[in-house]
């Protein structure tokens, strides 16, 4: 039982780090754990989803902090301000795509920077991350 707890903790940490601005590879860890068949797939998906969602919320918080000190109009180029405007117009639903590599972290950061409604954003982020991990788990079962 202790080995399982350590491995699930490792998955959680990997998923958390993968959803911050630090690089990570939680998909590979999840795929390996599913492929071994030693774990309940549902548990693996839940642990990875929670870790990845909390990492995204951390990135969101960094966006909130950055917005307090650096307004977008003074920091970003015109092209980047256009991209930020797209997120502003589309709103919280753009955060569904936070599971995408590279761009997902930027979306989380932008959501915090733009102060999109927190609770709906968290739920949308969670749905996107859950969908991604469920799809990966299904492919490796």
What does this entry look like structurally?
The structure is a single chain. The chain has 141 residues and is mainly alpha-helical. It has one domain (2-140). Helix content is 77%, strand content 0%. The protein contains seven helices and no strands. It has helices at 2-18, 26-36, 41-69, 72-75, 78-90, 103-113, 118-140. Helix 3 (41-69) packs across helix 6 and helix 3 packs antiparallel against helix 7 (118-140). The longest helix is centred in the middle third of the chain and has 29 residues, at 41-69.
Alpha-beta classification: mainly alpha
Computed CA radius of gyration, to the nearest angstrom: 16 Å
User: First CA to last CA: what distance?
Assistant: 22 Å
- The number of helical elements comes to 7
- How many domains? The number is 1
**Strand segment count:** 0
Instruction: Show unreliable segments.
Output: none
Task: Tell me briefly what this model is.
The protein has 141 residues and is mainly α.
Layout of secondary structure:
Blueprint: H1 2-18, H2 26-36, H3 41-69, H4 72-75, H5 78-90, H6 103-113, H7 118-140
Helix pairs in contact: 1-2, 1-3, 2-3, 2-7, 3-6, 3-7
Give the tags.
141 residues; mainly alpha; 77% helix; 0% strand; elongated
